[in-house]
């Protein structure tokens, strides 16, 4: 005995539920119903399964305000259907044309934004775990073709997913598509067989919209060369989708391994990046751009490739690339950083006096302080002299007080040990590969004659060095505020 179309639909959705865990017992599901055969069939199928899994269903319909009385009749139809099935009903009525005028967005984008925002709000109201959408195999084929024509990468060619987390949503909410492997002709045939009424959206027959043009013109034309074109596109989406998931997992692992959080952003080593396959390089950049706090989901191939090519240059130089949205990509020697609000990294000039009996000098402009101690040679300090960069030792008798701790000035130079004459501080920074963004944060210490004795944390000068006749030693340590010396 031949099984009915509705029975087959229910069995198919039951199998998809088992395979993808679309819901759990007792879940609340918002069902988006336009009134067409696909969404109406979905509501009937889920209503049947709700008895088995103790599901709470909420039927949600959006009147976009495009088609006047026709849209109003559809809203009434869906409301009556929900009432017949004893399912809660939520109606959203919007003036999308006004929203388009206010935002400058196109018809399809504006309608989609309004529709999904309403569905999210309904889900929040009912504490739902998922929103069920009636997208089917023909919709998937159109999506893949649309993305292909736009020059999409693997993520776009993977099309829609049977289950995915709703983007940019406060609570864990999933979008589920139980019909994604079913084709529309089967849904229409089932409705007709079961005498289930539905409505037809007249705007679906207007090919001025890109998706409609693909459905009405492009796919039928290409179908001359492959009568199973929709199936072929769906197979492509499934294959690409699985491989895209794998690549996304690998990129997430690389992100955890290579990316460090820094003030105002994220950073990684250019050398480590250059060792990656080009596919992972592109994905890693895109993930960074899409990652909190940047959320630059509109990042495109040209932008990503510009960043990637700059990082791969054989003779790297320090550079800055404005990415928009107050975000910059910056290279400083081997470090690539994506930083936001970098303007507040500017350090105001400062000057502080250091008298001979001074023990601590605070530098609030850079959130640092200089700790100063003095002892006699032979007291033990000379045997435990630290080689740390943040520490320097001087012959106390050769220091000309008062000393000064200040910000760097143009033309600064310092006498180095083993070098006849002086060297510009700027050149010392370059030789030591000190990132330009860090240079304003490095204090300069000079003596009463204006001679630089220490670029704190970087290099000390040839002045007041320790020797065998030294009798008194001054130790200076540069530490962060709150850090112990």
From TrEMBL:
> Its Gene Ontology molecular function terms?
tRNA(Ile)-lysidine synthase activity
Q: Which residues form the Lysidine-tRNA(Ile) synthetase C-terminal domain?
A: 403-478
Which catalysed reactions does the entry list for this protein?
cytidine(34) in tRNA(Ile2) + L-lysine + ATP = lysidine(34) in tRNA(Ile2) + AMP + diphosphate + H(+)
Q: Which UniProt keywords apply?
A: ATP-binding, Cytoplasm, Ligase, Nucleotide-binding, tRNA processing
Q: Where does ATP bind?
A: 34-39
Matches recorded under Gene3D superfamilies: 1.20.59.20, HUPs (3.40.50.620)
Q: Corresponding gene?
A: tilS
* Keyword tRNA processing (UniProt): yes
Q: Which family does it belong to?
A: Belongs to the tRNA(Ile)-lysidine synthase family.
Lineage, top ranks: Bacteria, Bacillati, Bacillota, Bacilli, Bacillales
Question: Which branch of life, at top level?
Answer: Bacteria
- Report the EC number(s), separated by commas if there are several: 6.3.4.19
- PANTHER family per record: TRNA(ILE)-LYSIDINE SYNTHASE-RELATED
- Specify where it is mainly localized: cytoplasm
Task: Report the HAMAP family cross-referenced here.
Answer: tRNA_Ile_lys_synt
Provide the protein's localization: Cytoplasm
UniProt keyword Ligase present:
yes
Q: What is known of its domains?
A: The N-terminal region contains the highly conserved SGGXDS motif, predicted to be a P-loop motif involved in ATP binding.
Give the InterPro entries listed for this entry: Lysidine-tRNA-synth_C, Rossmann-like_a/b/a_fold, TilS/TtcA_N, tRNA_Ile_lys_synt, tRNA_Ile_lys_synt_N
Q: What does this protein do?
A: Ligates lysine onto the cytidine present at position 34 of the AUA codon-specific tRNA(Ile) that contains the anticodon CAU, in an ATP-dependent manner. Cytidine is converted to lysidine, thus changing the amino acid specificity of the tRNA from methionine to isoleucine.
Top-tier EC class = ligase
The molecule here is called: tRNA(Ile)-lysidine synthase
